[in-house]
Design a protein that fits this description.
Helices cover 66% and strands 5% of the residues. It is mainly alpha-helical. Among the domains are: 430-505; 508-634, no CATH class. A six-stranded mixed β-sheet has the order 2-1-3-4-5-6, covered by helices on one side. The chain binds zinc ion (2 copies). The site of one zinc ion has 5 residues, from helix 34.
């Protein structure tokens, strides 16, 4: 062996980073070793499999090899199968077959993994046939990947069939088939197989925990967790995140504390998982406690954790805390900047969001498509049309970011909110991509705000072609008619909704009191909590009427009695939630509510009045933004 080759081999052995790898590659080119099959093979293996984020490099390297062997093909197929474009893996396999290089069992294991990752049953089935033709279908490796592939493609029956034909499945195959059952929501099947397993490893138990929590069977998950002979950090984070995602924050927290006590410290994954569950539910108090832990343990130095924390505060309605986390971050990524901008925009601080965008640009961070969605959203929610248009053009011309349907949606919203309905309509008809239902729905919403009946009818027509079953569109159109006093038309729309059996999505609101999250649903039956809320609400409403409040019932159907109409709006879930908050929280704290739909006019008025008469601060997150009610007015300036 030449001394250069010897040196190159030892460098390859110690190569740990992408920079290292490029240096070695350069060395091989300089010394003429770039044709040595061993050197090339090792370079490929390192860039495609061992070192992360260098698969593109591997792919380019591969295209320069004149006659790659089976090992090289397998390496690239393997790397690509785990990449963001697993279908590239399939193309490489096809090229391998065209060059008549016979595939081996490894080729099939890797390529089937690719089919699983891009969920192509068609490709998967064809590859299964090829594996049979080449005599590899009984290979343990191949069979195990077949089980996973069928599961990923939603075919639990085929996965089971492959598994049942295995003469001696190993533990990996057993685990794959149990996972397959959970993937296809067959919890019972998974249980039966788990009980039949001749032996189990830690992964088997963890699969059961993950499957149960995902299916919402928390009791079974807990039982399994207790029975486990040993637990690792994966088991703990599965329990923490799983319980949090199911809304059981108290339990999630006690698992969290236990893991801490036992030295099974939470991982980055479990922390970000829990934080995102808190953000979804608006569980602000829990977020605050977790923040304490994160600071104490230095986890705030991990960017993804700080990003999740910032997002949680923003989504729980405390923009100041979000800002504090953001300002304290030593290093910021594009995600940090974008979340902060989105948070500011949702809270109606459009000017600050724009200021932040400028700051980001001058700090040298390059905005991406998501950043532009946030900034366009900010412009539209504070009515900054010119700036909005400017950003829209800048995105394409300066940053060369491809415009997606979401960006067009933001522009429609921008025009629509400002009452430029004809511009919005023109914009949609001139879009280079086909407008989807969301785009038309945005315009329908704008028609509703500005009371344009004619355009609303036209837009609803387009929507009926695209998504005829959406209850929200019918409700919106009938409300537009109702507000305009066109009662017959409103009733016709409601009638056709009933005839087609289209159900309204029930509205719900959540509120956190003493670290328990309560959920109120409009028109739900009575229990202790709802009774308490109703009682308090009745008291509040009569106090507000003294202050001159008149219920806004224009949008409620005209063919019911006035009193009944009043009753219908008075039971909206956000009203119950706020009443419950006033009954249970101590005065001076902030009432935080999360609502699944857009808040209605009447509830909005009531919230404003409560904030004035009772001197409470209320933060309400609805489907599209935050409303901060304080001293009788709202941060959205009645514009949502
Ligand atoms: Zn309401
Ligand atoms: Zn508001």
């Amino acid at each position: 062996m030449s001394s250069n080759l010897q040196l190159c081999a030892s460098l390859l052995r110690d190569c740990k980073s992408f920079t290292n790898l490029k240096q070695i590659h350069a060395f091989s080119l300089k010394t003429g070793l770039d044709n040595d099959p061993f050197v090339i093979g090792q370079l490929l293996l390192l860039s495609a499999v061992t070192i992360s984020d260098s698969i593109d490099y591997a792919h380019r390297l591969f295209t320069f090899i004149t006659s790659p062997d089976a090992f090289m093909y397998n390496t690239v197929i393997r790397g690509l199968s785990e990449s963001e474009s697993p279908n590239q893996s399939l193309l490489t396999y096809i090229q391998m077959r065209r060059r008549s290089i016979p595939p081996d069992s490894f080729s099939f294991a890797f390529i089937l993994k690719a089919a699983a990752n891009f969920k192509s049953l068609n490709a998967g089935t064809q590859l299964h046939c090829q594996a049979i033709t080449h005599g590899f279908e009984t290979h343990l490796f191949v069979q195990t990947t077949l089980v996973s592939m069928y599961a990923e493609c939603g075919r639990v029956d085929s996965a089971r069939k492959v598994f049942d034909e295995m003469p001696q499945p190993n533990i990996v195959a057993w685990n794959a088939v149990v996972t397959a059952c959970f993937r296809c929501n067959d919890v019972m099947g998974a249980e039966l197989l788990f009980n039949r397993m001749p032996w189990r490893n830690l992964t088997s138990w963890n699969i059961m925990l993950a499957g149960y929590t995902k299916a919402g069977e928390l009791g079974s998950a807990r039982k399994m967790f207790v029975q486990m002979p040993q637990k690792d950090s994966v088991s703990w984070s599965t329990m923490i995140v799983g319980f949090a995602q199911n809304g059981c924050f108290d339990d999630a927290f006690s698992f969290f504390r236990d893991s801490w006590r036992l030295g099974m410290g939470p991982s980055e994954v479990s922390l970000t998982g829990v934080l995102s569950a808190f953000a979804q539910a608006g569980a602000f108090e829990f977020g605050k406690i977790l923040h304490g832990y994160i600071e104490k343990t230095g986890f705030n130095r991990i960017i993804s954790v700080s990003n999740a924390l910032l997002d949680t505060y923003a989504k729980c309605g405390n923009i100041n805390m979000a800002r504090l986390v953001f300002n304290q971050m030593v290093e910021k990524t594009i995600v940090s900047w974008t979340s902060m901008m989105a948070g500011l925009a949702m809270h109606g601080h459009g000017d600050e969001a724009i200021e932040l965008f400028r700051e980001m640009e001058s700090s040298g961070v390059r905005p991406d498509g998501i950043t532009f969605i946030s900034i366009l959203y900010a412009c539209s929610h504070v009515g900054l049309i010119e700036q909005g248009c400017e950003y829209f053009h800048k995105m394409k011309e300066v940053y060369e970011i491809e415009l997606s349907i979401e960006h067009y949606g933001c522009m429609v919203d921008l025009y629509g909110r400002s009452g430029l309905l004809n511009e919005a309509y023109k914009f949609i008809t001139n879009m280079p991509i086909e407008p989807n239902a969301i785009i038309w729905r945005t315009l329908l919403g704008a028609c509703s705000i500005h009371g344009n009946v004619g355009l609303a009818e036209c837009v609803k027509g387009r929507l009926s072609e695209l998504e005829p079953d959406d209850s929200g569109d019918y409700v919106l159109l009938s409300n537009i008619y109702a507000v305009a006093g066109k009662w017959t038309d409103a009733a016709t729309v409601r009638g056709s909704m009933n005839n087609q059996n289209i159900k309204k999505i029930p509205g719900w609101s959540m509120i956190e009191v003493d670290k328990v999250v309560y959920r109120f649903v409009a028109g739900e039956g009575m229990n202790g909590v709802t009774e308490e809320a109703h009682k308090k609400l009745a008291e509040i409403m009569s106090a507000l009427k003294v202050e001159g409040y008149v219920p806004e019932i224009r949008t409620v159907l005209h063919d019911i009695e006035e009193e009944e109409k009043e009753d219908a709006v008075s039971r909206h879930s956000e009203k119950l939630a706020v009443a419950f908050g006033l009954a249970r929280l101590c005065h001076g704290s902030v009432v935080r509510i999360v609502k699944n739909l857009r808040v209605c006019r009447d509830c909005h008025t009531v919230m404003k009045l409560i904030s004035k008469v009772y001197t409470w601060e209320i933060v309400l997150r609805d489907r599209s933004r935050f409303h901060l009610f304080k001293e009788g007015s709202c941060s959205c300036r009645d514009y949502w």
